[in-house]
């Protein structure tokens, strides 16, 4: 009986933890929550997939892979950028299976807070992969990327309303045909 009560209590707590109140009020300014700030917070010791054991490791791995992909994307080295964007998204997907809320002040350690935006980073990766696919003439695949990206950015905005997220949402919507918006 005690074990059954414990299981019920854990399920009840899990249900409460997964309820996301909609973000409201003014969005968090771009100067406080942006891609460059996320990159800066995750510089340093490089995490390898073999070393990633905790969620924070997977987050750092995803961010570091995204940072490399961004440089390749800017240099128009698209095949390598695609591989890194995919790898980055795999790391973010691992995180999102366990913790699906973005946060502007995620507590990493006691008194250490970071920008934690796996949904938003995944959405930005989908935007970039879609642009690469579009450049290769793969419009249908690009549209699918942008739809996934739009779903991720909307999930991010439910938890944390940021100017960064709102801007990304506008970009994704502008790339999708009217019937898919």
What does the model show?
The chain is mainly alpha-helical. Helices cover 63% and strands 7% of the residues. Strands 1-2 form a two-stranded antiparallel ribbon. Helix 4 packs antiparallel against helix 5. The radius of gyration is 18 Å and the shape is globular.
Set out the fold topology.
Elements: H1 2-17, H2 35-41, H3 55-74, H4 78-96, E1 103-109, E2 112-116, H5 118-135, H6 139-159, H7 163-175
Antiparallel strand pairs: 1-2
Features:
7% strand, 63% helix, two-stranded antiparallel ribbon, 181 residues, disordered N terminus, mainly alpha
Structure summary:
The chain is mainly alpha-helical. The chain has helices spanning 2-17, 35-41, 55-74, 78-96, 118-135, 139-159, 163-175; strands spanning 103-109, 112-116.
The helix content, as a percent range, equals: 55-70%
Radius of gyration from CA coordinates: 18 Å
Strand order of the largest sheet: 1-2
**Shape, principal axes of CA atoms:** globular
Decide which structural class fits the backbone: mainly alpha
SSE run: HHHHEEHHH
């Amino acid at each position: 009986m005690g074990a059954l009560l414990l299981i019920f209590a854990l399920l009840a707590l899990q249900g409460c933890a997964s309820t996301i109140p909609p973000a409201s009020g003014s969005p968090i300014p771009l100067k406080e929550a942006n891609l460059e700030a996320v990159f800066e917070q995750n510089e340093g010791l490089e995490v390898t997939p073999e070393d990633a054991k905790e969620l924070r490791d997977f987050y750092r791995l995803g961010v570091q892979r995204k940072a490399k992909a961004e440089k390749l994307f800017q240099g128009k080295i698209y095949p390598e950028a695609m591989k890194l964007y995919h790898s980055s998204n795999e790391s973010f997907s691992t995180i999102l299976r366990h913790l699906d809320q973005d946060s502007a002040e995620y507590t990493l350690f006691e008194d250490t807070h970071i920008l934690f935006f796996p949904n938003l980073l995944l959405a930005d990766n989908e935007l970039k992969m879609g642009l690469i696919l579009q450049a290769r003439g793969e419009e249908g695949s690009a549209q699918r990327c942008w739809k996934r990206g739009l779903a991720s950015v909307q999930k991010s905005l439910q938890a944390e309303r940021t100017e960064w997220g709102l801007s990304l949402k506008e970009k994704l919507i502008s790339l999708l045909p009217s019937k898919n918006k």
